[in-house]
Amino acid sequence: MAFFHFIASGAGRWTRVLAGAVLMVIGWWAIGGALGLVIGAVGLVPFLAGVLDVCVFAPLWGLPFNGEGVRQATRRQHPEAETRAPTPTATVPDEQPAPSESDEAAARPAPPEGDTHRPAAH
Fold this sequence. Notes:
The protein is mainly α. The protein has a domain at about 1-80. About 55% of the residues lie in helices and about 0% in strands. The protein has helices spanning about 1-10, 10-30, 35-50, 65-75, 100-105. Helix 1 (about 1-10) packs across helix 2. The longest helix is centred in the N-terminal third of the chain and has 22 residues, at about 10-30. About 15% of the residues are buried.
């Protein structure tokens, strides 16, 4: 279903529009005649499908005909294929509790071994 996920995406729609336009130009203007008419008509299908946001072959695989329906269905099946970046939101930093005396004592470096000097009590 990754194919339909791409085809229903914005890039897939543009790909269909451009591929259809190329086929129409090649068929109707470059080739001409009956064969050119057929190739141009075939190019009209992906062109219109991209412009109208429909997926012609998606129903054959049990997916909806409209592009938005295909996007929703393929998102459920391939959530890792989501291409949109998450929208940044303002966050408030978590408040840290005030350090206690035991935390401050634990943060002090230990005296070197053999140091017996103790400060005098006042």
